[in-house]
Amino acid sequence: MRRSTTLFPTLIMLLSCSGLTLPASADSTKAWCSLFSAKDNSKALPEPVRCTFSQRQGNVVVSMPQRTFNFPAKEQGKTYQRDNHSSGVGFSKEGEFTLVVFWQDPRLQ
Questions:
Q1: pLDDT tens digits for 4-29?
Q2: Which domains does the chain have, with CATH numbers?
Q3: Beta-strand (E) ranges in 44-105?
Q4: Cβ atoms of residues 32 and 47 within 8 Å
Q5: 109, 87 in Cβ contact below 8 A?
Q6: CB-based contacts of 84: which residues, under 8 Å, 6+ apart?
């Protein structure tokens, strides 16, 4: 029994010294998304659809039924704008689209 209690800390130390790391997990949540096209002049809120918002090390992936959007952290402010707010987060690509992610169904707010 004594051997196994000293073996585990030794393994942890060896792994940490070897440079091996466990992959970071992404934070994911079900959300509601509305996609505004830059070509659409309507100010009305597009019908929100269920989506999944995932973030890992600042990199965001938003998965909708027909499309997936990737927003790399290193591109923020260059190829897209990000706007965090208490009810969700928005992503805009000038001349293309604005994607708004709501934490709760916006029709109920």
A1: 444 334 333 433 444 444 445 569 99
A2: 27-108 (2.40.128)
A3: 49-56, 59-63, 68-71, 81-85, 88-93, 97-102
A4: no
A5: yes
A6: none
